[in-house]
Design goal:
Blueprint: E1 3-11, H1 15-31, E2 36-41, H2 46-52, H3 58-66, E3 69-74, H4 89-99, E4 104-110, H5 123-126, E5 130-136, E6 144-153, E7 156-162, H6 167-182, E8 187-192, H7 198-214, E9 219-224, H8 225-234, E10 241-244, H9 246-258, E11 267-274, E12 280-286, H10 303-315, H11 320-335, E13 338-339, E14 349-350, H12 353-367
Parallel strand pairs: 1-2, 1-3, 3-12, 5-10, 8-9, 8-10, 13-14
Antiparallel strand pairs: 4-5, 4-11, 6-7, 11-12
Helix pairs in contact: 1-10, 1-12, 6-7, 8-9, 10-11, 11-12
This protein binds nicotinamide-adenine-dinucleotide.
Nicotinamide-adenine-dinucleotide (NAD) binds next to loops.
Length: 368
């Protein structure tokens, strides 16, 4: 059996609590002979600053670069509000994204039937929803130059952000989206604003060409990003994979996420360039933060982190079947009426982090 190296960076706040449940899953998969995963653990965020004076040490970065994948819990908290800007906890996360060259952010929006009533949309619109938003993560208006505020005198200033995209940046993100669609329902919506933005015109042109040359078997639809935002709340189940730029992806992925209910349920993956063997650098993490308000109480929802681990098994370790089983176990436990406090519902049993992990393991054991 192939052996994979996984670096665990639990981080701050509830990070170590939710990561502990992933460690139990790794031990379970090993004991069942389903996966051979060698783990190392290191510091990131505020805890790394406390230990080393920086949000991620060189040694931890080297480990991240050497691993097949990295799993991160969460970083930050009020304790580190006063640390210098360059050493703030988030700097560790940004350094990981930059040095691993993670340009593709995958944010699934999955609505488990048992949680459909927690959505702000009607049950029939979201029950069974399964969308993948593919956001370009390293280009666009968040990084384009010039980026400045210029003093014009007489009490006036001018602020400038620059949206820039080059052909290769669009090609590689489109490729990730089409490849994913082939493993799902074979449908890609490409969202931009070609009606008012030159980057939108180029985005549309490049996605169209990549599709024609390499993925004619996948259905491609172009959609204006503002219409995409509307359609996501009007009829979200019309979408399968949505590929879009950094700014629109930031908004659309949060919008899609809310259709599914709670922050404690949302996984994510960030992928880099494929190497000669088709393997990509990758970082998996829950969408939520370190939740300092509940840290240390054993009540955090571990599902977002467990679902991020399932994505790691699927996309980095070629263990799609084990990932499917973990996702089914999560759905089963929710169907049984078990809830952590953040997703509690009348008539359901509220459990803590460890009990939720126990229940998911028990569901997996039954299946095994
Ligand atoms: P947050 O996501 O940490 O928490 C928002 C709310 O959701 C809180 O009430 C929290 O208790 C709840 N929540 C979040 N995850 C939960 C879970 N798994 N189970 C149960 N409840 C959960 O966002 P915030 O409060 O804005 O930020 C807190 C800290 O986290 C800040 O320092 C922020 O900078 C940092 N942060 C880090 C990341 C990251 O590591 N990727 C992302 C967002 C925020």
């Amino acid at each position: 059996m192939t052996s994979y190296k996984l670096l665990l960076l639990p981080g701050d706040g509830i990070g170590p609590e939710v990561m502990a449940e992933v460690e139990r899953l790794i031990a379970w998969a090993d004991a069942q002979g389903l996966a051979k995963i060698e783990t190392e653990t290191d510091l990131v965020g505020g805890c790394a600053y406390d230990a080393h004076g920086e949000a991620i040490s060189e040694a931890a970065m080297m480990r991240a670069l050497a691993a097949n994948a990295v799993m991160l819990g969460a970083v930050g908290g009020p304790k580190w509000d006063g640390v210098p800007y360059d050493q703030r906890p988030e700097a560790g996360l940004l350094r990981l994204r930059k040095d691993l060259e993670l340009f593709a952010n995958l944010r699934p929006a999955i609505c488990y039937p048992a949680l459909a009533d927690a959505s702000s949309l009607k049950r029939e619109l979201v029950d069974g929803l399964d969308i993948m938003i593919v956001r370009e993560l390293t280009g666009g208006v968040y990084f384009g130059e010039p980026k400045e505020i210029v003093d014009l005198g007489k009490g006036q200033k001018r602020a400038v952000d620059t949206q820039v995209y080059e052909t290769n940046e669009i090609e590689r993100i489109a490729t990730v989206a089409f490849e994913l669609a082939r493993k799902r329902s074979n449908l890609v919506h490409s969202a931009e604003k070609r009606n008012v933005m030159k980057t939108g015109v180029l985005w549309n042109e490049v996605v169209t060409r990549v599709h024609k040359e390499h993925y004619p078997d996948v259905t491609l639809q172009h959609i204006l990003a503002d219409n995409c935002a509307m359609q996501l709340v009007r009829r979200p189940k019309q979408f399968d994979v949505i590929v879009t730029d950094n700014l629109f992806g930031d908004m659309l992925s949060d919008e899609a996420a809310m259709a599914t209910g709670s922050l404690g349920m949302l996984p994510s993956a960030s992928l880099g360039e494929a190497d000669a063997r088709g393997k990509r650098r990758a970082l998996y993490e829950p969408v939520h933060g370190s939740a300092p308000d509940i840290a240390g109480r054993g009540i955090a929802n571990p599902i977002a982190t467990i679902a991020s681990f399932a994505m790691c098994l699927r996309y980095s370790f070629d263990l799609g079947e084990v990932a499917d089983n973990i996702e089914r176990a999560i759905a089963h436990v929710l169907d049984q009426g078990l809830r952590t406090a953040d997703i509690s519902q009348d008539g359901c049993k509220t459990v803590g982090t460890r009990e939720m992990g126990d229940a998911i393991l028990a569901a997996l054991d039954r299946k095994a």
